[in-house]
Amino acid sequence: MGADGVRNVLAGVAGQVVQAGSIGTVTFAPEPPLDLVPAQVPAGPSRFVDRVGQLAALRALVGGEPELGRPVVVAVRGMPGVGKSALLRRAATELAGEYPDGALYAAFGADGESTAAALGRLLRGLGIPDVKIPADLAGRRDLYRSRTARTRLITVLDDVTDAAQVEALLPNSAAGLVLVAGNTALEELHVDGAVPIVLEPLDPPDAIDLLRAVCGDGRVDAEPAAAAELVELCGRLPLAICVIGARLPVRPRWTIARLIDDLRDTDLVLDRVTKVADAVHAELPEPARAVYRAVGLLVGPEFGDEVLGAMVGAPTNEVRGHLDHLAAAALIEERDNGQYAMHRLIRAHALRVAAEETTEAERAGQLRRAVDWWLLGATAADVAATGWERLRVADPKRLLADVELTMSAGAALAWFDREHANIAAAMRACAERGWHTPIWQLFEATFAYYDARRPLAAWVETGRLAVEAAALDGAVAAEARCRCLLAKAYQELERFDAAAAELDRAREVAQDERLRGSVHDFTGNLALRTGHFDEALRWFREALDINVRLGRARGTAMQTLFVGRALAGLGRAPEALAAFDEAARLAVAAGADSVVAKSLLATATAYAAGGRPDEAEGAAARAEEIAVRLDNSALRAEIHLLRAEIALSQGDPAAREAHLAAAAAAYERMGSPKAARLLVGLVDA
Questions:
Q1: For the range 681-684, what are the long-range contacts, defined as Cβ-Cβ under 8 Å and sequence gap of 24 or more?
Q2: Percent of the chain with pLDDT strictly greater than 90
Q3: What is the pTM of this model?
C-alpha cells in the first residue's frame, strides 16, 4: 500500500465503501430514485409546542385572495432561537396536502446560499437538469418564473436577510404560499402585501410544556418552581430550552435545581444561547467535544459522519456515536438523508470553541484531512463514472491502487450531487491557505460531475480557481488540462471567445503528446460547435493520431467518432459512416459502451439523412438497447426523436407517436423545453 496506509473496498446491494487508512472511508449509496415532486423542506422538530394562533393564521390564508399574479407571502420575524424555522417547517408539513406541486426550500444567512445558488437548486428540484440551468442570476430567475407559472407550491425561505432574496424566489403563481423567516422586519415585503407574523418567546406554560417533552420524565412536575425558573433562564427560547433541557435525560439523578445552580456558576456573556451552549459543551466527553469543534470548521448546511471521522482521526462508527451524543444534547439535528445539520448560532459557538481550544496548526490539519477525504471520494466517483482510461494529470491509482470499484455511475453522480458544494467550498478554503495542489486535483476529479450535470456557474468558478492554482503550483500539465476543462464550461455558456482563449493558453503550456491530444480534442469540439467543420476535422485528426501513437483505446474510439461528426458536417456522408462504424468497433474493444451507443446513433442519423430508413432504424434500436442499460435518459430521448422521424418516413404513424411520447416523457423528466414542443407536435430535433 505504501505510505498512504491501508486501502480496502466493501461492496454490496447497499452501495460501496472506499477506504484509505490515512484518510478514512467514503460510502457511495445506490442512485436515488427520481423524485418527480419536490419535497425540499426539512422535517420539523419532533418536539413542537404552542404556536396555535400562528398556525391557524397560516391555515386561514390557504385559498385566500392574493395580490394579482403573486402568491401569498407570510413574513415571520423574531429573535434568533425563537423557533421561526420550526414554525415554518411545521406549517409546511401540515399544509402539504394543499400544495400538490411540492415544497421548495432555501436558507440564507451568514452561512447560507447565495440567491443564484438557491435558484439553481430550486430549479433542479423542479426537474430542470443542470445543463439547462443558466449560469447568471437573471437567466435563472426568468427560468424559475417560467417553470413555476400556474403551479401550486409551498415555498419556505429561511434566515432571509434582504427582501431581494424573496423577490427573486417568488413563484410566478397566485396559487402558491411563500413562508419567509428573518430576524428583522423586511419592510419592502410588507409594502407588497406580505402578511406579517411576529414570533415572541414562548409563553411560560408552553415553555414548561416544551421542557417537559425534552426531559421525558416527571421532574418538571415534581419541581414546578425550578422548571419555571429554568425556562426563564433560557429566555423561553425554544432553542435554548431544547439544548439545556437535553442535559437532564442523560443525568437521571440530577434535579432541575441542580442544573440551574450549574448554569449560575458559569460566568458567561448574557447571550442565552451562548450561555446554554457553553454549559452543554462543558459537559461533553472529550471525543464528542473534538467532533463538535470539527463541525465548527465546516461550511455548508449539511455534513456527514465520514468526513468528520477523517478530520478527527476516528472510525466512522465511533464518530456516529459522538454525533448521537451531540444530537441528544440538541446541538445538531439528524436529517432524513443520514446527514446532519447545525443551527447557525450553535455553529458559531462551535467555531469559537475550536479557536479557543485548538491551535491554528491543529485546525489546519483537520481541514487538510477533510480536503483529502473529498479528494478520495471525488477520485473514486470520477473513475466509477468515466473509467480508468480517461486522461488525468493526477494518477487515480495513487489513492485507489487496490480498489475494485463496483459502484454504478449513477451512485457516483449521486455522491457528487451531495458533496459538490462542499468540494467547491473546500477549494475556496484551500485557495485562502495557499494549498494549490489539492485545488486543481479536486477540479480535475470533479469533471465527471460537471460534464454530466452541467452546473455551469460552479464549473466556471472552480475552474478559474484550479487554473490559477495549477499555475502557482508550477504544474504546467495540470494547468493545460484545467484550461481545457474550463474551456468546455465556457463553450456550454456559448462564451466562445473565452473558450478559445483558454485553449490557446493550454496549447502554449502543454508539453507532452497526451496533453496536446487533449487540447486538440477540446479545440476540435469548439470548432464543431461553431460550425467550422474543416477546422474541426483537422484538430480531430491530429488528436486521433496522438491517441493511436499512445495506444489509448477509448480515446482512439472517441476521436474517430468526432472525425465522423466533422465529416458529416461537411456533407461527406460515406466517409462519415465509415468513421462511425470504426468508432463503434474500437469502442466495443475498449469497453466504452457510451461511445458505442453514440456511434450507433450517429450512424442512424446519417442513414436517415441519406434516405435509408430501415438501416437507420436498426442502428437506432441497437443504440437504444445500450442507452437503456446505461440509464442515459438524454441519449434515449435523442434516439426516440430520431426513431420517430424514421417511423414517419416508413409510414408507421403509431410507432412515430409512441417514440414522440417516449421522447416527450424523457425531456419532461429532464425539464427540457423540447417537451412542450413535442407535446404539441412541433418536433425540433
A1: 683/641, 683/644, 683/645
A2: 47
A3: 0.69
